Amino acid sequence: MVVGVLVVFDPLGSQRPGVLPDAPLGVRDLESSESSQLFYTAHTVASRVWESRLRLLCCCLPQDDNHRAAFSSIGQLVSGFFLVRCIYEIPFYVALDHKREAVLVAVRGTLSLKDVLTDLSAECENLSVEGVSGTCYAHKGICQAARYIYKRLVNDGILSQGFNIAPEYKLVITGHSLGAGAASLLAVLLRSTHPTLECYAFSPPGGLMSKALADYSKQFVVSVVLGKDLVPRLSIPNMEDLKRRLLKMVSNCSKPKYKILMHGCWYELFGGTPDDFPTELENRREEALSQPLLGEESLLVQRSNTYQSLSSDDSPSHPTHLPLYPPGRILHITEDGPARRHCFSQVRYRAEWSSETSFRNVLISPRMIADHMPDVVLHALRSLTREQPFALCPSSMSNSHLNVI
């Protein structure tokens, strides 16, 4: 068993051979040379791992050039043989919902390290959709995952089997987190052949699709976001904005940082009210600091141009990445009532239509991770509809006839 594990186990994970950079797509930053190089390097290192194992098993043979070349070739062959799955192949589930008369496609969210790599493949990829005006592109990793599911559903005849059994049923696509992003892009791909499809994306990633695709998806995609969930606010421009804001707060902060960290840890573990003691120099600029936190040789005294450009609100922003937006119409669920309540009190929720502009900033909160968990989202949805059908709060960004769930 030990020998078998040593032979079969691949700590790096295998990639499919022949992964090459895509051809130029005519849109800035759409090439994925960095990610392709990363995958190629990982595959090369995996082959070397197998080559080292073969040398260990055949240590009695002379280590000349011929044997080394043979070990290298066999290592590449064996690493390809034991590959598990392509990085963008995420699990999905197809079922017939006879109660609601629907063919349901549910896509799983992030659960493995390969799913994390799919999340991190955040460069843009062209996604041409017939009938959509404007530039169409999407998150590369999630787009590839949606294309994989599309091929399985259509080419393998999975959808046709379902509709052969129940031809009058409608198509419903859903998912959470990574699965929500893949479900939304899958709905975009299937929209032309299934014009009545519906998609429900729970806690979808914020940096998912171009503005043209986001506006197009509002016809058939509903995104559900709970509270201060981090993932619907994640995008490269939002992270750059967060970095600038953090540096500005550090430069203005007059309170020892260890106290801030200790109070934050206490608030995270035991709850309560955050410290109301002011942590910024009120009515003063950075030039008024008399005791820089890093001493006489600090960046605050030297006035580094780089530091000023990052810490000042007045500095112009130079976006280096294409903007990406969350899919469809956004239903934002928040806690109703006062922010300070007893730890055993019942939480009540309210829901209202929102827009992508409300999710352009990352909010630092103890709830930013907890609000993303699927069980917490499910609890909030059940709480909204437990006693009676809830009245959806109208939004100025939406039409009145859309305020119906």
Protein traits:
405 residues; Rossmann fold; seven-stranded mixed β-sheet; two-stranded antiparallel ribbon; 13 helices; 38% helix; globular; disordered C terminus; triacylglycerol lipase activity; metal-binding
Strand order of the largest sheet: 1-2-5-6-7-8-9
Q: How many strands, what sense, and barrel or not for the largest sheet?
A: 7 strands, mixed
What kind of oligomer do you see?
single chain
What's the helix-strand series? HHHEEHEEHHEHEHEHHHHEEH
Low-confidence stretches: 14-32, 277-303, 395-405
Number of helices: 13
Percentage of helical residues? 25-40%
User: Which structural class do you get from the secondary structure elements?
Assistant: alpha/beta
Gyration radius, in Å: 26 Å
Net shape: globular
**Distance linking N and C termini:** 56 Å
For CATH, the homologous superfamily of the domain at 84-254 and 325-387 is named as Alpha/Beta hydrolase fold, catalytic domain
CATH architecture of the domain at 84-254 and 325-387: 3-Layer(aba) Sandwich
The total strand number stands at 9
GO molecular function, one term: triacylglycerol lipase activity
Domain Fungal lipase-type: 105-236
Membrane topology: Multi-pass membrane protein
Subcellular location: Cell membrane
Describe the structure.
Strand 6 (198-202), helix 8 and strand 7 form a beta-alpha-beta unit. It contains 13 helices and nine strands. It is globular and about 75 Å long. The longest helix is centred in the first third of the chain and has 25 residues, at 33-57. The chain has a domain at 84-254 and 325-387: Rossmann fold. The chain is an alpha/beta fold and 405 residues long. Mean pLDDT is 76; it is low at 14-32, 277-303 and 395-405.
